[in-house]
Amino acid sequence: HVFFSSLFPHFSLGMGSPTRVHLPALRLFSPHPLYMMKLGRVRNIVVVAGAGISTASGIPDFRTPGTGLYANLAKYDIPYPVAILNINYFSDNPHPFFSLAKELYPGHHRPNYVHYFIRMLHQKGLLLRMYTQNIDGLEKLCGIPDDKLVEAHGSFATAACHLCYTPYPAEEAKQAIMNGNVPICTFCAGAVKPNVVVFGEDLPEKYFQHAEDFPKADLLMIMGKSLTSCLILKVFLLCGRSSPSPAW
């Protein structure tokens, strides 16, 4: 087991007085990244995060048997589990997605020690970029600045028509969804959706704007990920031969 706070023994995570935080064991590769961090030889860290970092905040992940999102979709009356996150099914019937969106909208949960640890990396000048697949907004809420953050699956902060992509006021879309209504595009009458990425949609443009991050990084931290998604595979393709040392 590793005490990350031993790297910065006098630096608070922002959750009260400085304390050691006990995190799960990491798989380390030679040379050991945490040892290199202590020596000051790691200066550019890229963090890739998945749903697992938010479970401590009370947000379920996708695949955990019994508690994951995919295991609890029967109440949405959909023909197959991922239909609720498929843009083609959304076009035919947006109501299941909006029922789920009510539960996923930011504001019900708080960041946990993992989010604050990543913020600490930024405050120490070590965070080159954080790539998150999460749409819970906890990274921004804990203080990770926008220029250091790539929300690879979008966010609820903006909304647009899913057909013509005309922007729509995000707060109006939220109010309609929370009231059980479907926000409608004023241009083409298509259903408006928060700009979170579902199956069948492209990743946000910002995801492709920092390809130089991975060759530049000397440490790649993977958190809360099983490495089964296409996003992570693309990340490693971007790393290429000059891949940084990984730790997860």
From TrEMBL:
One of its GO terms (cellular component) is nucleus. Gene3D superfamilies: SIR2/SIRT2 'Small Domain, TPP-binding domain. Zn(2+) binds at C161, C164, C185, C188. PANTHER family: NAD-DEPENDENT PROTEIN DEACYLASE SIRTUIN-5, MITOCHONDRIAL-RELATED, NOVEL PROTEIN SIMILAR TO VERTEBRATE SIRTUIN (SILENT MATING TYPE INFORMATION REGULATION 2 HOMOLOG) 2 (S. CEREVISIAE) (SIRT2). It comes from Sinocyclocheilus anshuiensis. Pfam families: SIR2. PROSITE patterns: SIRTUIN (PS50305). Residues 24-248 form the Deacetylase sirtuin-type domain. GO terms for molecular function: histone deacetylase activity, NAD-dependent; metal ion binding; NAD+ binding. The active site is at H153. SUPFAM superfamilies: DHS-like NAD/FAD-binding domain. This is NAD-dependent protein deacetylase sirtuin-3, mitochondrial-like. Keywords: Metal-binding, NAD, Transferase, Zinc.
